[in-house]
Amino acid sequence: MLNLYHHIKGAIYGFAIGDALGAATEFLTPENIRGRYGYLTEMSSSGVWQKGETTDDTAMALAVARGILDDPQNPIPHIGEHFLEWHQSKPKSVGLTIEAVFHTYQGDWFAAAQQVHQNQNGQSAGNGSLMRCLPVALAYDDLQTIEKITWSQSKMTHYDDQAAEACVIYNRIAHRVLHGEALHPAILAVIAGTRYASVQQHPPERSPDGYVVNTLSWALHWLLTLDSFSAVIQAAANAGYDADTVAAVAGGLCGLHGGFTVLPEDYVDSLLNKRALDEVSDGLWRLRLSTQMVTDV
Ligand SMILES: [Mg+2]
């Protein structure tokens, strides 16, 4: 029997650590990174982010978690309220598609996402819904419920099915790991027969940019080819482009699998938003406990 709290907290912190480490190298090329940092292994400040500060990725993942905790039976409207609250706080960074959806939104997220998809000439397969979807797999035990809410939360901002499909693949892996399966077999079982099936054999051909397929391909590639949490998130951070998101997406699954105690202490200590991460980890754990007790009865 897994220690649920240990693994849920590991996922939330693993995700946030990847985000904060990769924040220093976001939008840089690997060559730029080598010139500036050598090989980046420590939390660093950049022009935009303080050392240990997480970005929009963690903020939106926390928004999804809080929306679920508000009403696990009907989370989507609450997730939307937390998106709005976050956007009103004037965050330093918002993804292009998500920013466009905020400007278009008039009370219906799904309509706004579709409108933005049309305005962007059918291009809405960014990684902005993948980067926030992990809390859905942490909150619920039932795979069908996870898949349904994972898909819907993606469609709130990203109309393209490629984004929702990536989220569902990611959370299917998380679900298996949370049920005690080892990470590599869980990934391989889920990606078999999908467009991601080849990521173990060779690195993805395209750069780890904000296209959701590239983000997930690179995250899974690092997870399948490297052994430790630090090696995975450092590889993602030093590859540049959408480094914070790739490192967060990979770090979340790695932390989920290993649990909180495998995360290096200096990374954990340097995070600036530990109170929010603890609060959401506690909340998701309590929700799991309460629903499992109901199921057991
Ligand atoms: Mg970011």
- Shape, principal axes of CA atoms: globular
User: What is the name of the CATH topology?
Assistant: ADP-ribosylglycohydrolase fold
Q: How widely separated are the two ends?
A: 19 Å
Percent helix = 55-70%
- Bound small molecules, which ones? magnesium ion
Structural class, by secondary structure, is mainly alpha
Number of strands: 0
Features:
globular; ADP-ribosylglycohydrolase fold; 15 helices; mainly alpha; binds magnesium ion; 297 residues
Report on the structure:
The chain is mainly α and 297 residues long. The chain has one domain (4-296): ADP-ribosylglycohydrolase fold. It has helices spanning 4-23, 30-37, 56-70, 76-88, 96-104, 109-119, 134-139, 143-155, 161-178, 183-191, 212-225, 229-238, 243-258, 265-270, 274-296. α1 (4-23) runs antiparallel to α13 (243-258) and α5 crosses α6 (109-119). The longest helix has 23 residues, at 274-296. It is globular, with a radius of gyration of 17 Å. The model has no long low-confidence stretch (mean pLDDT 96). Bound molecules: magnesium ion. Magnesium ion (MG) binds next to α3 and α13. Residues 55-57, 93, 244-245 line the site of magnesium ion.
Summarize the structure.
The chain is mainly α and 297 residues long.
Please render the helix and strand layout as text.
Blueprint: H1 4-23, H2 30-37, H3 56-70, H4 76-88, H5 96-104, H6 109-119, H7 134-139, H8 143-155, H9 161-178, H10 183-191, H11 212-225, H12 229-238, H13 243-258, H14 265-270, H15 274-296
The structure holds magnesium ion.
